[in-house]
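Extended Data, panel c. Modelled sequence:
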Amino acid sequence: LFLAVSAILYSHSFQFNKSDFSNLPTETSTKFSVGFNQNGKSKLTYWLFVLFSIPLMISTILNMFPLFGTDGQLFLLEIHRYSALILIILVIFHSGLISAMDKSRS
């Protein structure tokens, strides 16, 4: 519940704008390679965290009710397991981003 509320409350401050991207193509350039700067990567990590937390929450809630048989429960458990794994990887990636941003500031 807290994750859903925080996703709604912080979504405005984590919206993308032009300053979050690097190497944006201009009208005269033909090269198209868009990348993120540090702030854009942090925002992307936030939105990926919100995106992958949805199946984590739904699989937990649906697993509490006897709506599915044994195969359905095992499938929900696999969804929960891999969503949690992706979230752990995102947390590690975000920690690396924060430490890189702190080193670049000093």
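The helical segments are 2-10, 38-63, 70-105. This feature is highlighted in the accompanying rendering.
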